[in-house]
């Protein structure tokens, strides 16, 4: 793959007091690929995506977006670049319907008066383009949706804004088997539509079902980047728990580990 | 994996809603479905109101008189006005305990500003605007303490409750009663429209509902919210027409000695505020954000909504409607006295909103609930008064109605949850 990465993080460090959450992380996502970000608890996954989302600012290191160096100093900066995050706890309002949630905070309005027609039409188009067909009515409250449907709405909400990079934080953590499949299919579809996806997950089954490549974090460092087709779950588990034994220090971690 | 596989598991949904037949059959089906699933809307409260009217009509000799009817409208107006503000506060999941005495402050300000012979005497309309603005400002300060310092609204407005009660005491303890002579201020309660003007207003108010439907059809063309069950719309339109024209007809019938009665301005004011605030809640970005913050404040914040600003503005609305309600109450007795606010104003206003189906936990409820709740409470208390029931029993019965309404609502919500709506 020789394209310019959509986003590239180089040598990112981030400390909270004496805790070094990120210790020189390199991370890149190519256009249109699903990149999984895996690692044990405390490996730095959350901190890393928060650096991309603008919630945290890295202490050191650089972020390149489409080849240009950028500063992401807040969620608004991230949104302007086309980066959207779907957090684990969804951030949907149960009492509002699907359309209202999709446009939450970015309502189509003239002189403060809502344009419901435009919002409903676009919502329906977005859901259709993502083949989210299980939602009966876009005017039903989100409280009445199943977990998978809610996750689909949350993802569609992120995709709607011409985003280029969608970060999904544990999207299947609370879902049953069938609903997990539904969400994973949605993730694959995002990749097929040319969006880049970062999939943060504990579940290697999910990762191997969807990801093109897998980045493994361990103790705040990147210990390996795997091509999904060329690796096994066992190798990834080993990287998560013990690091990559064949890795020699000095070799840039972004060079793909061949196992 | 094909799309069909993905779609499969979630498809097993009750098809009944999608396949509802249209027309009158659809109306019947929908009513039945709503009843089973606990989606009662405003039906219980309207049924309750009709029952109360029938009972008092049969038992109290002077309940069904035109004069009492006009009284009922003006007595309800103040409570309804405060309850409108309560709706917005409750939608956020907050509470405002200060509105009773804020109403008193609003009344006190207009009374002071219209005082003849004082150096600051001003036109009554201007005085009312100043009072409303001042109470909105006070509400804004209380809201800011909630939003920016993070003190629970219960505590902040409990402080407000004591503070504004104290201010009124300080101001009126020596002065006793301040008489309001300004005719504009007194008009808010007792201005009576001439009979033909009453009919014109009735026609305009009756047209409002069809206009709102038309507005939906035009603005939201081709969307699901524009879809209507036409028999239901017709039923509502006719019902509203009967209620409005009936009100004017009865009010026009009244006569105090030889002065003819008619539709009081207070009734028109509450309807105007009802329309305005409903539009604000349902059709504006601000209203949407109020519902969002009440539903999930964290989600609203992440969506880029300025949650603090919404909180402050809502408490400003609460202060402003309290002032307007207070002015109407003061105009009723043409004065402000130490006995202000009358009766259990604060609790009646909150009860009106809650009886009207507004949730105390935020995110659920409508402005119309406050109006219907205030009318029910007003009718109940007025009817019991005409039966010369003691105040103690009036409180007890109001309390029981409140309990009954909330129990019904709680059961309805549980039914809704069970039926997945």
Structural commentary:
The complex is a heterodimer of chains A (259) and B (421). With 259 residues, chain A is an alpha/beta fold. Chain A has helices at residues 45-53, 75-81, 98-102, 116-129, 147-159, 177-192, 204-210, 233-242; strands at residues 7-16, 19-29, 34-39, 60-65, 68-70, 83-86, 109-110, 113-114, 165-169, 196-200, 213-218, 221-227. Chain A is globular, with a radius of gyration of 19 Å. The two termini of chain A are 18 Å apart. The model of chain A has no long low-confidence stretch (mean pLDDT 84). Chain B has 421 residues and is mainly alpha-helical. Chain B has helices at 3-7, 23-37, 43-59, 66-91, 99-113, 124-149, 153-175, 183-190, 195-219, 230-253, 265-283, 285-295, 297-302, 307-333, 345-355, 367-386, 391-418, and strands spanning 178-179, 255-256, 259-260, 335-336. The chains are: A alpha/beta (259), B mainly alpha (421). The A-B interface holds A 75-76, 79, 87, 89-96, 100, 104-107, 109, 112-117, 120-121, 131, 133-134, 136-141, 144, 146, 148-149, 178-179, 181-182, 185-186 and B 1, 3, 5-11, 13, 17-18, 219-226, 283-286, 288-289, 291-292, 294-296, 298-300, 302-305, 363-364, 420-421.
Q: What features would you highlight for this structure?
A:
heterodimer; A: 259 residues; alpha/beta; Rossmann fold; six-stranded mixed sheet; four-stranded antiparallel sheet; 8 helices; 12 strands; globular; B: 421 residues; mainly alpha; ABC transporter involved in vitamin B12 uptake, BtuC; 2 domains; two-stranded antiparallel ribbon; two-stranded antiparallel sheet; 17 helices; disordered N terminus
The N- and C-terminal alpha carbons of chain A lie at a distance of 18 Å
| Overall domain count of chain B | 2
CATH architecture of the domain at 7-87 and 146-242 in chain A: 3-Layer(aba) Sandwich
CATH class of the largest domain in chain B: Mainly Alpha
Radius of gyration of chain A: 19 Å
Give the strand tally of chain B: 4
H/E series of chain B: HHHHHHHEHHHEEHHHHEHHH
The top-level CATH class of the domain at 7-87 and 146-242 in chain A is Alpha Beta
Give the helix level of chain B as a range of percent: over 70%
Q: Radius of gyration of chain B from the CA trace?
A: 23 Å
Structural class of chain B: mainly alpha
The strand line-up of the biggest sheet of chain A is 6-9-10-3-11-12
Instruction: Give the assembly state of these chains.
Output: heterodimer
Mean pLDDT of chain B: 85
Strand portion of chain B: under 5%
